[in-house]
Design a protein that fits this description.
This protein is an alpha/beta fold. The chain is built from 18 helices and 33 strands. The protein has a 21-stranded parallel beta sheet, with no helix packed on it. It is found in: Cytoplasmic vesicle, Phagosome membrane; Membrane raft; Membrane.
Length: 725
């Protein structure tokens, strides 16, 4: 239901908008015209933004069908006139912005009489809007915020704003204060918060008669981008006294065009700043600062002020006498100024700020933590101290502090370690954004510890922080924490450990994902807790990360693999034994050695006519019959026998290979004993490559006795093949 069409260079409202659209943003375009039919189908539209276009014409019934509209922004267009007919059906409208158009008045009739639910109204412009008349706001009874931009206001008809019975917040843009008091008279009894912007109060003069008898309800008064002189400042102080309900005054980005010489003015008749309890000054500009007086003439006005903020105004000193006059002061904020130890010594003098509880010196020019603590010993009631964003760099071993210190802010002070310098009475400590890599300091009363954006690798030891309830330790380099660590913090209610580089181990994930109560303790869980490793889950939320079985049960997996390997090796051994695998391996090695030798020995190296391969159990027949016959033949044959001709001490495999290589033929005496003999098998196989690879007839088979083919083992495949020839 959201249609975002801002900054699209549109020159008209797009066609085709339907009842499904609930929010339409067409701001920052070039639309010039709104017709009766442009929005007639948007019956469910609640938000319409037409800001910063060039609209000069809106037809009478353009918004007639938008009965659900709650937010309408027509600001900064070119509307020369406003019409009440635009708003007559917008019964539920809560926000209406008509700022920055070209109209001079709010129309001839009351524009807003039908807008009974309107809560925020912004009207006027910086140039042509010059009149506020009695009927302009008729029909409005309650507004949370009313903003009127009337820098060139020339006519204000009395009681024009009195029809609004209650205004929470009124923002007035007035260039000159001529009509300010007239407006103030009408609203002083119905307004809670008045904000005056872009006004030059050089000529402002307060008349006691106009307000003195009125029942005032204004509680807060803000001057934003307003210019004062010494004289007009005194007139404003008079206003504080007569508008008795004002409790808070703020000056934001204002300019005091004077030298602070109030001695000749009528301040002697003013004892206090009315009932003002809170005074806030931000970005105060004083062009003639080096001629400025010491303000001693207004010291007496500050006795009832309880809260003072002077921020980013180049304050380098609060005079001792002024500090002593601030007898009711409980809160003092001097952030972003030029305070140093030398000037702080004068400001925090004896009897200064006797009831001060909170002192903020953030981002000043303090450099010594030890000296700062000593200078503040005069503040007996001080409990909260903020000295963050100062360049302390280091922390001494011991320091002195006011006896009631409960809260200390040392964030962004570049310290790299903590020492016993910190007061033991602390309940809240902020040391965020420093260079700390550990926390081992005993603080028995500490309830809240803020230590984010440092270099800590683990959670602090709970024994040092027995009553800790809040720990914020995000953006460090912590990679894990355990249930035992969390349980050791017996009173911990909130832990913010997001933004760290978590190693998502199995133990950590099991703890983080199964502990339902963890979500109630961890701040920003689960979105801010993400894995940094292992790499395949990097960037995933800890809550969503999943690891494989091998990662989470590595010992069990390794044990299982080892067992499987052992069983495999055992099985292999059994198979090798049953299937003579070792024999095959030995034979393969010998065969490879044989293959590396020359395929045919030189003729001069052949010493025997034949090598005889036989089983030892057949030796009688071989040696007494066959050998005798062949060696005594005519001509005689020279035979090689292992008993007689093998070289003593030489590996038997090498003897077999050499004997075969040095013989013309190899005689195999086949029998069942031969088949069962491994050495006979070696001899048969080593001669095989000559028989087949060299394609010769080097093998001679003699069948000593009939051999059943089934009796020949399967591994003797070559013998079985030869037996078939």
């Amino acid at each position: 239901g959201v249609c975002d069409g801002h900054s699209r260079s549109l020159n008209s409202i797009p066609s085709g908008l339907t009842a499904g659209v609930k929010s339409l943003d067409l701001s920052n375009n070039e639309i010039t015209y709104v017709g009766n039919r442009d929005l007639q189908r948007c019956v469910n539209l609640k938000t319409l933004r037409l800001r910063a276009n060039e609209i000069h014409t809106v037809e009478e019934d353009s918004f007639f069908h938008l009965r659900s509209l709650e937010y309408l922004d027509l600001s900064y267009n070119c509307l020369p006139n406003l019409s009440s007919s635009w708003f007559r059906s917008l019964y539920v409208l809560k926000f209406l912005n008509l700022l920055g158009n070209l109209y001079k008045t709010l129309g001839e009739t009351s524009l807003f009489s039908h807008l009974l639910n309107l809560r925020t109204l912004k009207v006027g412009n910086s140039n042509s809007f010059t009149e506020i008349r009695e009927k302009d706001f008729a029909g409005l009874t309650f507004l949370e915020e009313l903003e009127i931009s009337a820098q060139n206001l020339q006519v204000y008809v009395p009681k024009s704003l009195t029809s609004i019975q209650n205004i929470s917040h009124l923002v007035l843009h007035l260039k000159q204060p001529v009509l300010l008091l007239d407006i103030l008279v009408d609203i002083v009894s119905s307004l809670d918060y008045l904000e005056l912007r872009d006004t030059d109060l050089h000529t402002f003069h307060f008349s006691e008669a106009s307000i003195s008898e009125m029942n005032t309800s204004i509680k807060k008064l803000v001057f934003r981008n307003v210019q004062f002189t010494d004289e007009s400042f005194v007139e404003v102080v008079k206003l504080f006294n007569y508008v008795s309900g004002i409790l808070e005054v703020e000056f934001d980005d204002c300019t005091h065009d004077g030298i602070g010489d109030f001695r000749t003015l009528a301040l002697d008749r003013i004892r206090y700043l009315g009932n003002v309890e809170t005074l806030t000054i931000r970005k105060l500009h004083i062009p003639q600062f080096f001629l400025f007086y010491d303000l001693s003439s207004i010291y007496s006005l500050t006795g009832r002020v309880r809260r003072v903020t002077i921020e980013n105004s180049k304050v380098f000193l609060v005079p001792c006498l002024l500090s002593q006059h601030l007898k009711s002061l409980e809160y003092l904020d001097l952030s972003e100024n030029l305070m140093s130890e030398e000037t702080l010594k004068n400001s925090a003098c004896e009897n200064a700020w006797p009831f001060l509880q909170t002192l903020v010196l953030r981002q000043n020019r303090l450099k010594s933590l030890e000296k700062t603590g000593e200078l503040l010993l005069t503040l007996k009631s001080l409990t909260n101290l903020d000295i963050s964003k100062n360049n302390f760099l280091s922390m001494p071993e011991t320091c002195q502090w006011p006896g009631r210190m409960k809260q200390l802010n040392l964030s962004s002070t570049r310290i790299h370690s903590l020492t016993q310098c910190l007061p033991q009475t602390l309940e809240i400590l902020d040391v965020s954004s420093n260079n700390l890599d550990s926390f081992s300091l005993l603080l028995p009363q500490l309830k809240e510890l803020y230590i984010s954006r440092n270099k800590l690798k683990t959670l602090p030891d709970a024994s040092f922080l027995p009553v800790l309830s809040i720990l914020r330790i995000s953006r460090n380099i912590i990679n894990t924490f355990s249930k035992e660590q969390l349980d050791s913090f017996q009173q911990l209610k909130t832990l913010d450990a997001g933004g760290n580089s978590f190693i998502c181990s199995c133990d950590f994930l099991a703890f983080a994902q199964r502990q339902q109560a963890l979500a109630r303790v961890l701040a920003d869980w689960p979105d801010d807790y993400r894995c940094d490793s292992p790499s395949h889950v990097r960037g995933q939320r800890v809550q969503d990360a999943r690891l494989s079985l091998s990662e989470c049960h590595r010992v069990a997996v390794v044990s299982a693999v080892c067992c499987a390997l052992f069983l495999l090796l055992l099985l292999t051994g059994v198979l090798c034994h049953r299937l003579h695998g070792l024999w095959y391996m030995k034979m393969m090695w010998a065969w490879l050695q044989a293959k590396r030798k020359p395929r045919k020995a030189p003729r001069r190296d052949i010493c025997y006519d034949a090598f005889v391969s036989y089983s030892e159990r057949d030796s009688y027949w071989v040696e007494n019959l066959m050998v005798q016959e062949l060696e005594h033949f005519n001509p005689p044959f020279k035979l090689c026998l292992h008993k007689r001709d093998f070289v003593p001490g030489k590996w038997i495999i090498d003897n077999i290979i050499d004997s075969i290589e040095k013989s013309h033929k190899t005689i195999f005496v086949l029998s069942e004993n031969f088949v069962k003999s491994e050495w006979c098998k070696y001899e048969l196989d080593f001669s095989h490559f000559r028989l087949f690879d060299e394609n010769n007839d080097a093998a001679i088979l003699i069948l000593l006795e009939p051999i059943d083919k089934k009796a020949i083992p399967q591994r003797f495949c070559k013998l079985r093949k030869i037996m078939n020839t």
